[in-house]
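Lab meeting prep.
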Amino acid sequence: MSKDSLIVGVSGVFFGLLVGWIIGSQQGGGRPAAPAPAQAASAPQQTGQQAAPVDETRASALKLTAQQNPSDAASRVELGNLYFDATRYPEAAQWYEQALKLNANDVNASTDLGIAYYNMNDPDKALAQFDKSLAVSPKHAKTLLNIGIVRAFGKQDLKGAAEIWQRLLDVAPTSEEATVARRGLDGIRSAHPELGLKPQGSQ
């Protein structure tokens, strides 16, 4: 299926909104956002940001820690973060998966894993992982925002994206993520009136 129609329909109001934000890290320390996969024609593209190189010394130390401590989830999450920031998503995913086997309630690692799957061109697996994140934290704002982005750009489901972003506005209306979602909803309404989305604030 051609994705060009989606790009034309939303690029003017939507891409500008998402550049510089793109589905990103859930870490409290604010790791850099991950770029969307370049292979996906309908995905928003990150500009002006390069992948961080992996600190191989740090990675080796963390791998040793993980090997010596089979129950240590933290070292595995940090390894996932290192590879995630370097856009080495398959390696990041492997470490996040290991961490989540040890601590299934780490919503940040779970959502970062979903983002890694999306960047590996598997939006269905990403959405399934985000569902696991919401099972842990139903109001997790960054998960909700990312679900909308994957639905819009990975699944070409603008109505589904709008629905999840509206949910984000309902549960976290003052969050930074809500600001992005609100503007995204405005863009979808303007570009696709045929979807029949109600104006914000209407019942």
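Slide two material, second protein:
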Amino acid sequence: MDRLFLTPDATALAQVISEATAPAFMLGAVAAFVSILVGRMNAIVDRIRHLNDIADDDRSRAHLKSDIPRLRGRLSLLSSATRLALASAVCTSLLLCVGFASAFLRLQHVYGAGGLFFVAVALMGVSLFRFGQEVTIGISEADHYL
């Protein structure tokens, strides 16, 4: 029980702090990426709202409403990418917590930290893939109207 209240080794803490650099940069990258995703989602929601405001008897623009299912598909892809990126950020935050907790408890954390970092990077990779899918269908002729 005394082990829980031991002061951490300064060398171990310094090591954990130096190992925290990559996850800290990853958290910053994920935050910037989520900001981009949310901005794109807001633009799509605004576009859907504008299309829904077109009166059914407006013959010159009513055909634009046919783009709503494509926009909803894009929104779904962006929402999925955002959830995956946030899951990556949670894994990265957990990685930082595990690193510091293990230093305080004088436990080895290398394998757990490596596993968490792998999961975080994999989630971010899948998120980028979903974003790439959205970008692929993102631009069409209908986006140039309204």
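Talking points for slide two:
Residues 102 and 123 are 24 Å apart (CA to CA).
The radius of gyration is 23 Å.
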